[in-house]
Each structure stands twice: as C-alpha cells, then as structure tokens.
Amino acid sequence: MSWKKFASLAALSLVAACAAGPMAPVQQAGLDPSDWPAHRSPTPVDQAMETRIANIVAGMTLEQKIGQITQPDIRWITLDEVAQYYIGSVLNGGGAWPNNNKRSTVQDWANQSAAYHAAAMRSDMAVKIPLIWGTDAVHGHSNVSGATLFPHNIGLGAANDPALVERIGRATAQQVRATGITWVFAPTVAVGENRRWGRSYESYSSDPALVGRYGAALVRGLQGRLTGDGDVVATAKHFLGDGGTFNGVDQGENRATRAHMIAVHGAGYYAALDAGVQTVMASYNSWNDVAAGRDYGKMHGSRELLTDVLKGRLGFDGLVVSDWNGIEQVPGCTKDHCPQAINAGIDVVMVPEDWKAFIANTVADVRAGRIAESRIDDAVTRILRVKMRSGLFQHQPAESRINGQASALDVRALAREAVRKSVVLLKNDNAALPLRAGQRVLVVGSSADSLSNQTGGWSLTWQGTENVNADFATGQTLLAALREQLGEANVTYSVDGRGVDPSQFSAVVAVLGETPYAEYNGDVRFPAPLQHSTLHPADLAALQAVAGKGAPVVTVFYSGRPAYTNDLMNLSDAFVAAFLPGTEASGLADVMLGGRYDFTGRLSFAWPGSACSTGEDGVVQFARGYGLGYAQARSVGALPTPATPMTCPVG
Ligand code: GLC
Asked: Cβ(201)–Cβ(456) under 8 Å?
C-alpha cells in the first residue's frame, strides 16, 4: 500500500473517530514510523527499579495516579492540596516566585521546595512519592533575582562552542539546585527558520547539526550523572517543529514535508535522546505536511508523533510533559479536560490553574473507558522512573550540599566569557574598534544602561518586562562596564545623543536594541516588514544625532533575532550584533577594548538584507557563519537599503 493511500486511510479513520463525539478517544491508525531514525534509550533498564515501580503503581488508587500526572503552577496550589490531591509535580511559570515575591532569596526558594517535599510525604499513600519541581532556566536560573544570566541561545549559537554550552549547563544546574528545584525545562532544540518568530532567540541556530551538538551538550551539563547534588533533570523541547511554523507564527502550523521534519526539526531530539535526556515537552504547534496531503494536527494530540515516533521508534523511556495549557489546543479539548492528549502520549499534564477540574475529569475519563487505565499506569511508571533515576526517592532536594547556597547563583566569570564569544562583529570600517584605554567616549542609546534590554525575555518575569536594573540584584550594563574599564571620567552618557558634541570624543558607542518579549508577544506577524529603525525609531534618531559629527560611531545592537539594519549600519563605522548577552555586558567591553580579546563569534543565522527577508533563503546581507575579527579588517562600506514596503509580499 502506498504511503499516500495509507496516510489518507489513517486520516479517514481519524475523522471517523472525531465524529464519534468530542471526548471519544482519538486513536489514530498507527502509521509506519520506520522512516524516522531508529534510536534506543542510552539508559540501561534497571530491572530492580522497574519491579519497584510496578509494585508502587499496583498499590496506587486511580485518584493517586491522576494526581501524579498533574502539574499545577505554584501560584494556584497550596501545600495541603499537594498532599490531599497526591500531586506529582509543580512548576513555577515565568514570573512565578515563592510568596509571589520577585526578590525572593535563594533560601525562600529552598524553603518552598522543602515544604513541597514535606507535603508530598504527608499524603495518605501507601508508598509516598516525592514531588518534582520544574522551572524554566532559559539562560541561567532566569526567574531568580541575583542569578547571573547567560546570553540567550541565539548568541550562544554564534559562539559555536558546545563545550562552553556544557559548562553553562553545569553552572545552571547548580544555580537551580541552590533553590531546591530538580527539573529544568531546557534545552530548547528548536531549529529557527523564520525571524518573525517571537522565540527566535531561544533557538541556537538555523543549522540542525549545531542545534544537535548544543542540545546534547546542555543535557550533559544539566543532568551530569542525574543523582549528584548539582544535577537536574533536563527537557528537550518543544517536540516537534516549533521553529518552523508558517510565517513564524508562534504555536502555528508547521507545513514541512516529512523528510524535512525528520532531518531538520528532529535533529535536536536524536542528539538529546542519545545524551540521555529524561523528559520531552510537547509543542503547541501543529504539523500539516501540505505536500503529502497529510495533516498530523496539534502535537499535543498526536499519538503518531508522541508515542509511535518518540516513544516507539526513538526509544524514549522518560516522560512527556505538555506545555502550559497546551492540551486546550487539541480539537475538542479544554484546559481541564483532554483524554485525546493523554491517549496520544502526554504523561505529565501542565495544567497550571484548572488542575482540580482536570483531575476530576480525567478520573471520570478512565472510569468511562475514554482512557485505558493501562495508559495512566504507563504515564505514572515513566514519572516514577524519572524520579528514581534522578535520585529523588533516595534524597530529598534539601539534602544537596548546594541547597540554599546563594553563592551558586554567581557565575559571572563564565557568563562574561560566554558574552565575549557570542557577539559578532559585522562591520569595522576605518578600524573604529578596538577602543583604547584613556580614550574619551560618548555613549548614546536607550539600551546602554538597561539590564532589561540586554537580558531580554524570560528574565525575572516571563516577558522580561516590568523590571528595573535594581530588580536584577546583579549584572552590569555596557555603560557601567565601559565606565569601569575606561574610567568614569572618560565616559559621557546621553540617551538620545542630543546636546552633546561628538567631535569632542575619540569615539561614540551607540547601544541600540529591541525591548524585551517572550513567545507570541515577540512575533512580528506577516505581512508587517521587519526593520528595526521603523519598529524602534528612537534608536535611529539617536544614531542620526551622532553619526558623521567628527567621531567614529561604534554601534552595539541587542536583538532576539537576526535583524534588518542596513540603514543603521550605514550610519555606523563599526557594528556589533550582540544578540541578548544577559547580565554580564562586561564581556562586550572586553572585546571592544583592544589588546585582550578578539571577536570570535560567527552568525548562527543568516543576517537579512531587506525588511521582508525572514530566513536562510531570502535576501541575505551576511550568511550564516559570517563574522569579522580584528585581523579580518575587510571593509563593508555602504550597504544597499532597498525600499521597505508597507506590507511584505507573499513569498
Ligand atoms: C511556556 C513555554 C514553555 C515553558 C512553559 C512553562 O508557555 O512554551 O517553553 O517551559 O510555558 O513556563
């Protein structure tokens, strides 16, 4: 039977199943996943562990099993409810802190963790099951005030240094364990294909091979040997195809062919699975292989992808966690009710607020036969396997020697090194860089003294907004770093470049950039053009105020995506793509001041040459892999500035 004919039969059976009623278990015909690469779990089966798990599961009530697969957010559950409802895990979403206090100390976090453990131990279960707490340490322990924050993934990709990423994983794991948390929702192994996507900066590269190398490195760094005091459980996310949606719409439709999905978007998972990643997070996006006429639907409801491919063909024996209310996007589902997602292969359901209704609905589903109890048993088995492999049954989080250690948050030296390696010199005409000690420098631009703009989204808060520099409790802006390295008296700051005479200075440093965003809030929806100067006119105005006024202009540009900036570059003698460097802008000053370090960063995404170009195949100004150093003094000169249309054409 041809693949097409088989696929259409399967599609017909899917339609028939849906017609049976909104909550009928949607059992898609298992299509042959043999075109996916065969993988086996690298973790040997521990028969004694498996026997212990089976005995525990056999002794659990249905309510206890459903509580174990339920993951509320810490804002919407009490300690007593953790015990009463047999909750298996919690998360703190972006912007959730103990006692709802953004400036919670490490000890506050560790105390909350210990309280969750005690609550889980208070349940009336025959065998108590420890709770596991998950968090988004997107670029360091990004929710915690005082934590050093690393460059976001787009910058790390430019460093092209997997060993550095492994070290970052190690340091991040220790930051997280200091707060009593043992599960991190990282690495994101998305392959970013469209800079319109608001999560472009969470992708390491448009190169699947680099994404694979980095995904494996971060898993190794985070997980270590899984049971150590400084180890955490890692998560490969978001499965599958989040970086390749049509027009870069976050949570949208990926229209890739099966071959492209397997070769490109699967690459990070093969590597992460081989590195032993213990959890995978399902993706919001859907997949519609338009060329083949095969619509796989939303990932959260796709049994073929979550079970047949991931758990079958790829041999994944850890747990699959849904994304934040991700189940509601499955046709026929709501935030608190989705047998389709559990039947598809979701093992832990991230249901932040509506978890009580979810538990009641899911118990009813099992009792009514809409979910086989064997599927629930499999999910609980996977959860217990991850908890036992990570030592949670042997040692509660508070027993780690790192627990409560505020000093673990401070990894500034490593972050500073990462910044040095992650920034890319795109232009350096007339040797405008390096700056020299003793020079008098004028600094302009609204990003020069903004920890928010240099750290971007997922920094203290979900969006990275509503923060002031003091909220970070650590970190250095580029203005502060230049003052430290050039001398306070040699650096003058004017946010808009007005009322100062650039000719009185050896050089001008213009620090420009995007303002923070996360997820769909960062989308630039088609057909809007993507030109920084139109989206952020104050940056253009600041540059125009100082350009060509008797001093060379060095522009430093913060962005979460490759950006169309030819007009800004034409007003600059030197131009540094700094992406989102995190809290340690001192690393930027290190490479900008001559003598000690050179620029070694190379673009991990194509840099566009027009406002409507969005990927590797559009109008590219600088190709992936491009980047200058002080030794490569080639002149860039004036760049073309094609007219920017009001709306971009369908491309
Ligand atoms: C978000 C993100 C996911 C994150 C989760 C928990 O919506 O999609 O990456 O891990 O929710 O914060």
From this structure: yes
Cβ(70)–Cβ(329) below 8 Å: no
CA 528 to chain centre: 25
The residue contributing the CA closest to ligand 1 atom 11 is: 324
pLDDT averaged over every residue in the chain: 95
In 427-514, which ranges are continuous DSSP H helix?
451-455, 478-486
Considering the chain, tell me which residue range(s) the CATH 3.40.50.1700 domain(s) occupy.
412-622
Q: What is the DSSP string of 535-576?
A: H-HHHHHHHHHHTTSSS-EEEEEE-SS--B-HHHHTT-SEEE
Cβ partners under 8 Å of residue 576, min gap 6:
423, 424, 425, 426, 433, 554, 555, 556, 557, 588, 592, 599
Distance CA 406, CA 160 (A): 30
Element holding 587 (H helix, E strand): helix 586-592
Provide Rg for the chain, Cα atoms.
25
How far apart are the C-alpha atoms of 354 and 356, rounded to whole Å? Answer: 6
Distance CA 194, CA 561 (A): 9
The Cα 227–Cα 229 span in angstroms is 7
For the cut 60, the answer to whether the pLDDT of residue 295 exceeds it is yes
Which residues 6+ apart lie within 8 Å of 551 measured at CB?
Answer: 442, 502, 503, 504, 505, 506, 507, 508
Do you know the residue count of the chain? 651
Point out the least confidently predicted range of 213-227, 547-561, 626-640.
626-640
Instruction: Say how far apart CA 110 and CA 144 lie, in whole Å.
Output: 12
The whole-angstrom distance between residue 444's C-alpha and the CA centroid of its chain comes to: 31
**Ligand 1 in reach of 136 Cβ (< 6 A):** yes
Residue 632 pLDDT level (bands cut at 50, 70, 90): confident
Measured CA to CA, the distance from residue 70 to residue 87 in angstroms comes to: 6
Outline which parts of the chain fall under CATH 3.20.20.300: 3-408
Q: 463, 94 in Cβ contact below 8 A? A: yes
Tell me 308's DSSP state. Answer: I
pLDDT digits (tens, 9 = 90+) for 12-64: 444 443 333 334 333 344 467 889 999 999 999 999 999 999 999 999 999 99
3-state secondary structure of 41: coil
Does residue 93 line the site of ligand 1, with CB under 6 A?
yes
Q: What are the residues facing 321 on neighbouring strands?
A: 281, 348
**Catalytic center residues:** 323, 519
What atom of ligand 1 comes closest to residue 235's alpha carbon? Answer: 10
Residue type, 259: A
As beta bridge partners, residue 349 has 70
Is the shortest distance between the CB of 584 and ligand 1 below 6 Å?
no
What architecture is the 412-622 domain classified under in CATH?
A: 3-Layer(aba) Sandwich (3.40)
Ligand 1 mean position, distance from CA 324 (Å): 6
What's the CA gap between 288 and 254, in Å, rounded? 6
Q: Which residue has the tokens 């798990």?
A: 53
Indicate which atom in ligand 1 lies nearest the CA of residue 281: 10
Question: Which residues have C-beta within 8 Å of that of residue 14, sequence separation ≥ 6?
Answer: 26, 28, 29, 297
pLDDT value for 186: 98
Burial of 58 (0-12, 13-18, 19+ CB in 10 A): exposed
Question: In which element (H, E) is residue 380 found?
Answer: helix 373-389
**Residue 178 — very low, low, confident or very high, per pLDDT cuts 50/70/90?**
very high
Instruction: Assess whether pLDDT exceeds 50 at residue 544.
Output: yes
Strand, coil or helix: what is 216? helix
CATH fold label, 3-408: TIM Barrel (3.20.20)
Q: Which two tokens stand for residue 644?
A: 């920017």
